[in-house]
């Protein structure tokens, strides 16, 4: 029952009062159960979010990536925390949460992911990261993102092809990100008792996303 209560709090963000009615215990008991399970599971399962070696990434690289993004180590996306996802749609990095005023580029430079990248790695991103190209270049890391639209100037055919290729590669990555966002506890304002534990909560949502059925089927891999 404690585990079920914990999962319902993550997925549905029910109040402790609602959980108290459902489980027939006091609301303070619900709170105590939630944090107890959170701490135990975080200690045991957080290692399921790990940064794979380049050789592991290459072995799991989907066929759709190999023609254009064979060196891709991670695809990054950002809300109030940065998510790093492997080409095989496994969550490999989660940053701590940042305030709403922090830009995607600042979060990327501050969260520690740059120290995990090696020269020759390729990073894919959406349009919210234009300022990190130079930071990555300093580490010998390549960077690819869709081309920005320019006023009164159409895309060249090469730019159209690049944008389409990057967007196509990100499709299953978006599905992986959605697996985190379905946990309503992350889409609502956190109560004061949850704020000190938000990092662990984000981690557990990522762990649970990784434990779901793989997004890519076996035939998608080489």
CATH architecture of the largest domain: 2-Layer Sandwich
Give the SSE order as H and E letters.
HHHHHEEEHEHEHHH
What number is the mean pLDDT? 89
Class from helix and strand fractions: alpha/beta
Strand content: 5-15%
Percentage of helical residues?
A: 40-55%
Per DSSP, the total helix count is 10
Largest sheet: 5 strands, mixed
What general outline do the C-alpha atoms trace?
elongated
Q: Care to count the β-strands?
A: 5
Q: Show unreliable segments.
A: none
What is the count of distinct domains?
2
End-to-end Cα distance, whole Å, is 42 Å
Overview of the molecule:
Strand 1 (72-78) and strand 2 form a beta hairpin. It contains ten helices and five strands. The radius of gyration is 19 Å and the shape is elongated. Helix content is 44%, strand content 10%. The mean pLDDT is 89. The longest helix has 19 residues, at 27-45. The protein is of the alpha/beta class and 222 residues long. Helix 9 packs across helix 10. It has two domains: 2-48; 54-181, 2-Layer Sandwich (Nucleotidyltransferase, domain 5). It has helices at 2-12, 16-23, 27-45, 54-59, 66-69, 104-110, 133-138, 157-169, 171-181, 198-210, and strands at residues 72-78, 82-85, 91-94, 122-125, 142-144. It has a five-stranded mixed β-sheet with strand order 3-2-1-4-5.
């Amino acid at each position: 029952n404690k585990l079920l209560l914990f999962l319902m709090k993550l997925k549905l963000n029910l109040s402790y009062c609602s959980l108290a009615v459902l489980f027939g215990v006091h609301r303070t008991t619900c709170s105590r159960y939630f944090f107890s399970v959170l701490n135990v599971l975080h200690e045991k399962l957080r290692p399921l979010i790990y940064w794979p070696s380049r050789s592991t990434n290459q072995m799991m690289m989907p066929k759709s990536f190999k023609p254009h993004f064979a060196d891709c180590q991670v695809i990054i996306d950002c809300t109030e925390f940065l998510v790093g996802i492997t080409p095989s749609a496994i969550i490999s990095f989660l940053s701590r949460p940042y305030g709403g005023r922090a830009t995607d580029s600042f979060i990327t430079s501050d969260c520690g992911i740059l120290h995990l990248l090696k020269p020759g790695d390729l990073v894919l991103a959406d349009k919210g990261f234009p300022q990190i190209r130079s930071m990555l270049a300093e580490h010998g890391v390549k960077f690819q993102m869709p081309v920005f639209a320019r006023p009164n100037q159409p895309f060249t055919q090469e730019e159209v092809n690049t944008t389409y290729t990057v967007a196509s590669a990100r499709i299953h990555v978006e599905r992986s990100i959605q697996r985190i966002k379905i946990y309503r506890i992350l889409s609502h304002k956190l109560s004061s008792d949850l704020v000190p534990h938000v990092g662990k909560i984000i981690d557990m949502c990522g762990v649970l996303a990784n434990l779901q059925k793989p997004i890519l089927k076996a035939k998608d891999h080489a």
